[in-house]
């Protein structure tokens, strides 16, 4: 059977349990908008012409905001989860953990769920900001490998400085699903925090689970993508992505998947973007990005998949059925930010502190915003093309023939001073909300 014929069958006859999924999913608010991670927001498209308000935290913000009932929820590296009034940016409450909060919140039935680097999953009352329960995992950690990215000493086990995010919970049918640095995927009772099941992978799980049709879809840094039974945790299938065990920088799934019409879409550090049959795990199509990581989660709208790339520095729109390119748009530096769609516009940020709005039908950049820090500091770091010159951040220690982890961390912190946008926008009521490494949560109209 030809690939074209196989794709036709996949899309015409989605997995048997898919039809029941939409009816069973709750109206919970979470990362990427819903449990299937479509990245769609029912809101007019913001023009990004004005700042409604700024809310500042003492720590860098890597997580993505979530909006529910007129309140924005955001985690910060100051070890806290914040609830901020969407209308005026005033603080409603602050909940303090013992580690940076780099996951995005899910809100369901009056409870806010999120993970902290202290190794706990928290459930907090949406109104009062008080703890309802806490689940302790086996502990958080970053993906680590000997001499990662070619750094010295070559035999030293090093944490990956580019492993920036924690798994964001998804809520479905009264269950909270979340990955952990202890290599496990957990299913927890949403009311009590009691464990319903756990599934152990071969490495760190910082991707966020997508839930659709009674299945949980999630990737691990062990380079496998998994489909699990949402009720029991039983393995339905797994798919092996590319391997690179010599230099440890082209392996693993850091980003999250989206599911639509019986197909699951995700990017990988092996520089490919994949579309798999959600029922069987068979490859439908893949795109090669020639050495560029694909960290971001895709958005899906009207038969098109949209996603950003890292080193390649391009935003892609591809046909959901075939993977054929519809358009691509370049930007100034690498991006982990997942596109969020409102109206006819997809919004995403980059590490240079710029936020872009791209018309999803034409590929034209129709809106743009720069963080305060980027506006003030960017000029000193631009190359002749007007894009970010990364060499201006890296010390001789990190750009030498034998770079070190210490030099790379210093360089990244200098880059973060631009107000990098690592997370993904949330959009509600014509306003876009985004956090930055300045520690600022912006509300943009």
Summary keywords:
445 residues, mainly beta, 5-stranded mixed β-sheet, 4-stranded antiparallel β-sheet, 5 helices, disordered N terminus
Could you provide a short overview of the structure?
The protein has 445 residues and is mainly beta. It contains 5 helices and 35 strands. It has a 5-stranded mixed β-sheet. Strands 2-35-34-33 form a 4-stranded antiparallel β-sheet, with no helix packed on it. It has a 4-stranded antiparallel β-sheet with strand order 3-4-5-6, with no helix packed on it.
Can you tell me about this structure?
This protein starts with a helix and ends with a strand. The chain is built from five helices and 35 strands. Helices cover 9% and strands 38% of the residues. The protein is globular and about 55 Å long. It is mostly beta strands and 445 residues long. A hairpin with a 2-residue loop joins strand 25 and strand 26. A five-stranded mixed beta sheet has the order 1-29-30-31-32. The protein has a four-stranded antiparallel beta sheet with strand order 2-35-34-33, with no helix packed on it. A four-stranded antiparallel beta sheet has the order 3-4-5-6, with no helix packed on it.
């Amino acid at each position: 059977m030809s690939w074209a014929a196989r794709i036709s069958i996949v899309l015409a006859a989605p997995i048997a349990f898919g039809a029941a999924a939409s009816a069973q999913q709750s109206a919970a608010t979470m990362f990427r908008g819903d449990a299937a991670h479509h990245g769609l927001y029912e809101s007019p498209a913001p023009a990004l012409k004005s700042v409604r308000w700024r809310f500042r935290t003492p720590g860098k913000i890597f997580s993505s905001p979530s909006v529910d009932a007129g309140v924005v929820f955001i985690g910060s590296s100051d070890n806290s989860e914040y609830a901020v009034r969407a209308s005026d940016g005033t603080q409603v409450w602050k909940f303090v953990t013992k580690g940076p909060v780099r996951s995005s919140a899910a809100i369901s039935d009056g409870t806010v769920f999120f993970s902290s680097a202290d190794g706990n999953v928290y459930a907090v009352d949406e109104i009062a900001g008080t703890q309802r329960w806490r689940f302790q995992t086996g502990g958080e950690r970053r993906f680590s490998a000997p001499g990662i990215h070619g750094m010295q000493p070559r035999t030293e086990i090093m944490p990956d400085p580019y492993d920036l995010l924690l798994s964001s919970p998804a809520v479905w049918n009264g269950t909270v699903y979340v990955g952990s640095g202890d290599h496990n995927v957990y299913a927890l009772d949403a009311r009590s925090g009691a464990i319903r099941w756990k599934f152990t992978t071969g490495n760190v799980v910082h991707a966020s689970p997508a839930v659709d049709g009674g299945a949980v879809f999630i990737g691990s840094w062990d380079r496998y993508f998994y489909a699990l039974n949402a009720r029991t945790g039983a393995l339905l299938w797994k798919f092996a992505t590319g391997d690179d065990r010599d230099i440890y920088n082209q392996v693993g799934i850091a980003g999250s998947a989206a599911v639509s019409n019986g197909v699951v879409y995700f990017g990988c550090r092996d520089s490919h973007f994949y579309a798999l049959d959600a029922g069987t795990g068979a490859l439908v199509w893949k795109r090669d990005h020639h050495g560029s990581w694909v960290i971001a989660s895709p958005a899906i709208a009207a038969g098109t998949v949209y996603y950003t790339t890292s080193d390649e520095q391009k935003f892609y729109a591809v046909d959901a059925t075939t993977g054929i390119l519809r358009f691509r748009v370049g930007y100034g530096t690498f991006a982990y930010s997942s596109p969020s769609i409102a109206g006819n516009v997809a919004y995403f940020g980059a590490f240079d502190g710029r936020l872009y709005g791209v018309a999803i039908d034409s590929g034209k950049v129709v809106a743009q915003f720069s963080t305060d820090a980027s506006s003030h500091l960017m000029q000193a770091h631009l190359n002749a093309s007007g894009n970010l010159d990364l060499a201006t951040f890296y010390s001789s220690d990190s750009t030498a023939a034998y770079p070190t982890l210490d030099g790379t961390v210093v360089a990244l912190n200098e880059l973060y001073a631009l107000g990098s946008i690592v997370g993904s926008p949330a959009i509600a009521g014509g306003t876009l909300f985004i956090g930055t490494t300045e520690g600022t949560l912006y509300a943009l109209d």
